[in-house]
Amino acid sequence: MNDNKILDILTRTSEYVSGQALAQQLGVSRQAVWKEIQALRTRGYAIESVTNRGYRLSAMPNYLNAPAVKAALTAKIIGCELEVLDSVGSTNDYLKARGSAGCKSGAVAAAREQVSGKGRLGRVWQSRRDENVMFSVLLRPQIAPSEVGGITPLAGLAVCKALRRFTGLDCRIKWPNDIIVGRKKLVGILTEMSAEFDAVEYIITGIGVNVDTAAFPGEIADKATSIFLETGRHVDKNKLLACLLDRLEREFVGNELSLTPAAREEYAALCVTLGRTVGFTRGGVPLSGLAAGIAENGALEVMLPDGSICEVNSGEVTAQGIY
Ligand code: BTN
User: Fold this and answer.
1) How far apart are CA 169 and CA 227, in angstroms?
2) Helices marked H in 174-255 — which ranges?
3) 119 CA: nearest ligand 1 atom
4) Which of 16, 120, 152, 218 is the most buried (most CB within 10 A)?
5) Looking at the predicted structure, is the pLDDT value of residue 7 above 60?
6) Which domains does the chain have, with CATH numbers?
7) Is residue 267 pLDDT above 90, yes or no?
């Protein structure tokens, strides 16, 4: 029997459901229901059982699982197809394959473990099993490849706002879309696109939130942080993922997938890069200047020492005093 069916029933009510009712709805014996309840308990679901009343789900396990995310989710488009994978190479790569096979816009793949997680600029994104929230969202916007620039900052804005609300932390955006607390990185976002010359097939935004990590390895120890390190609390990862998906839907739908003037203003207000001296390279030449603004297409506007404004669209940008 598929235990998700029992979970589906138990997550839809806070009341007890009798073994008889479960058995009837699923077309199995009461003994088979009892066996599945035992299996769910061993996987971390707290299920109370009371004679003559039945079973009641009192707590979900705090590792990512689809029934718990769905129970907390209100978004209708983002997460319309939602999978939580036990282990995967990269959720971005997984969704690419699903995208090519025709999955819906708004499909989400999350994973308890990534064995070849990808970061920006060809880097590796490492995370121990069940420690963090890692997921990707696929969108099929009906726009030209040249118009997709707004999606990355919108995703950063959504994630920053969701985390501020969910954790109470003073999360900020380091351009283009690292989410940081103080001087340390809490979230990384990697956006990838499949497009033809004049049409986007799909865009995948992959998001990794450091949730429970208690210590980072040497080389990133002074650059990375987690919700646990900042708050001393272990938050509910399933509720956190639902909150992130809800906020992504609000920003994506509310701004029609473009960096509207209102979204750009909010982004700029949360962006710690602005007003700092930044370093970057252009054509292999190292340059530095003052981060002066966010352009309509999401690029960083940098004022060079000669007073000219240069738009930075991609690549590594270091911000003085951060990283
Ligand atoms: C960065 O370098 O800051 C971006 C990191 C993005 C990591 C996330 S985790 C989920 C998704 N799958 C991946 O392989 N990468 C992204």
Assistant:
1) 8
2) 227-231, 237-254
3) 2
4) 152
5) yes
6) 3-59 (1.10.10.10), 66-270 (3.30.930.10), 277-319 (2.30.30.100)
7) yes
From 207, 213, 240, the mutation candidate for ligand 1 (largest count of ligand atoms within 8 A of CB) is 207
Residue type, 320: Q
Pocket of ligand 1 (CB under 6 A): 90-92, 114, 117-120, 123, 125, 134-136, 178, 188-190, 206-208
Q: Rounded distance, CA 73 to CA 67, Å?
A: 10
pLDDT band at 61 (very low <50, low <70, confident <90, very high): confident
Q: What's residue 45's pLDDT?
A: 87
Copy the structure tokens of residue 12: 């839809």
Q: How many whole angstroms separate alpha carbon 294 and alpha carbon 273?
A: 10
**DSSP-assigned letters across all residues of 64-98:** --HHHHHHH---SSTTSSEEEESSBS-HHHHHHHH
**Predicted model pTM:** 0.89
Does residue 28 contact residue 1 with C-beta atoms inside 8 Å?
yes
